[in-house]
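Bench notes, afternoon.
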Amino acid sequence: MNINSNTNTICLLGHPIKHSFSPTIHNYLFEKYSENNIYVCFDVKEDKLKDCVYGIKGLDIKGCNVTIPHKVNIIKYLDSIDDNAKLIGAVNTIKNKGGILKGYNTDGRGFVKSILDKGYDIKNKKVMIIGAGGACRSIAIEMASQGVKSIEIRNRSLDRANEIIDSINKNFNTEANCSKDAIDSSCLMDIDILINTTPIGMESDLCPIDTNIVIDKKLLVCDIVYKPQNTSFLKWAKKNNLEIIYGIDMLINQALEAFYIWTGINPCNEDFRYIKKLYENSI
């Protein structure tokens, strides 16, 4: 990569960000497609988010990804957001065009593509999502738009969960509800897809559900945490002989969408495979 006086900066905003694989993804893509950009990470605490957005404009940073915990709060500091991100209520990608910051959301599309690429049909399926943050919003809205039958959100508090299900019930035919009850085997018997959208398990052996649960049915289990690749949540799924989707698949797919927003270039399937191999070689 030839960094020079014309090199543009694109970055990741989040806290924490030391685990991020995004620089590897985007710097590979920038080099392959001869885009004179460099991708870096900024660890931004919540009380510094507003200052950070001013800095993006002041330094003419051309674009950003946004990760936990800023995907919702950053919206109030942007100049505009696209219709998809507005419906979701969360942003994970920003483009700076002439000092105007526009927000997008590629999380849901990237997640659903990961499932469809495995040959799994989500239409009319029953879904349970753990967590009610920005990732849950984007995944739930995208899955509703793709025709899932029902979505239930499980979260420790219901305020944010209620906002998400209200949006789904008003805009889609999908039935949506929420609960703060602990997950047990009986509630898993009535669903087709179980998704963890919390950071629980990130670089730890913690699990968002009780790993003593035993279930004997066909169930697709998905984790958006990608480091480690085999989270305790996915280990539990494998122990119960359940199908799984790794978090790295969603990360790569949402990144390819973001790359297109910044550059107008559509990466190919070969890029996905190569990036995933880079990830697997790094762990």
